[in-house]
Design a protein that fits this description.
The chain has about 290 residues and is α/β, with parallel strands linked by helices. The protein is built from eleven helices and ten strands.
Length: about 290
């Protein structure tokens, strides 16, 4: 892969935010052909398609969503830097060290850490690792807190707080949207793509069996992005946290066929001590218990 051109990334980011090349061109004071050419060059450099046109509207492809997530963090960090430099020289910038389970949907992580991302006086340092490595890192005080979907392997010295609950839903492409009628009976005999974690997998299969449905499982994976990709491609019905596909539901790329009652992906903040020196971390940990998202 060639070295990335950050101007091209910025143009792509603005097109995705504005929803069209026309609006992005106006903001950048450039012509549409110029912006289109830069976008095409970026797709060539990345060797992937970032947008697809649906009903005269640009929609991010799965790879486009991944690129947008990283661009969003990158360019919002740049704006944060500018704001920070405008503060008085005596203002102290907080360094917040957060680790998260690499299998948690990045969209959920991004949403969870919004208060840190939007704070001009916060420098956010993120690590994406497996739970065991994160817990060891927390023990050695490498993190202020870590984000996991379970707490059964933490040490007695570590504390935790539930940050959010994300209910599971059955989603699929437009080819399957009529299955919303007579759900869950309508999914009988259909290919299912399911999360691999035992609690979620057992809960989903138990729910289906209560309705006399023997699941026809095509795929199990702990990769949320893969479940999104299979659903968008029309390779079956995926079951995953609603928050991880809210953007695809909103754009009508995916359709909710039905809920999976009583099954949630819980997100926990795990920390070593309550005596936080940074108020932003303290406020995050001490916020009221969440509702379902």
């Amino acid at each position: 892969m060639q070295h990335l051109n950050y101007n091209h990334l910025y143009y792509f980011w603005l097109i995705a935010k504005e929803g069209s090349i026309t609006q992005a061109a106006k903001k950048l004071h450039l012509t549409q052909p110029t912006i289109s050419a830069q976008l095409k060059q970026l797709e060539t450099d990345l060797n992937c398609v970032l947008f697809e046109r649906r009903q005269k509207k640009l929609t991010l492809t799965p790879k486009g969503q991944t690129v947008f997530f990283h661009c969003d963090v990158l360019f919002k960090s740049g704006l944060t830097l500018q704001k920070s430099l405008e503060q008085r020289e005596t203002t102290q910038v907080s360094r917040c060290r957060v680790g998260y389970d690499s299998q948690i949907a990045k969209k959920i992580i991004h949403s969870t850490l919004k208060s840190f991302i939007n704070d001009p006086l916060c420098y956010l340092e993120l690590d994406s690792l497996d739970p065991a490595s994160l817990i060891r890192g927390l023990t050695h005080k490498n993190y202020d807190f870590i984000l996991l979907t379970h707490v059964h392997s933490i040490s007695p010295q570590q504390r935790y707080k539930k940050i959010s609950e994300h209910p599971y839903v059955f989603v699929a492409s437009s080819d399957y949207k009529n299955l919303k009628n007579n759900f869950p009976k309508s999914v009988k005999g259909k290919s299912l793509c399911l999360p691999k974690s035992p609690s979620a997998l057992n809960g989903i299969t138990d729910f289906l069996k209560k309705h006399d449905i023997i699941p026809q499982i095509t795929l199990t994976t702990d990769d949320t992005e893969m479940l999104r990709v299979f659903a968008v491609a029309g390779n079956g019905i995926s079951v995953l946290p609603r928050a991880s596909v809210s953007d695809l539901i909103k754009s009508k790329t995916l359709f909710v066929l039905g809920d999976c009652p009583s099954i949630n992906e819980n997100l926990f903040a795990i920390y070593q001590e309550e005596d936080f020196t940074d108020s932003i971390i303290k406020n995050f940990i001490l916020e009221p218990e969440p509702k379902n998202q």
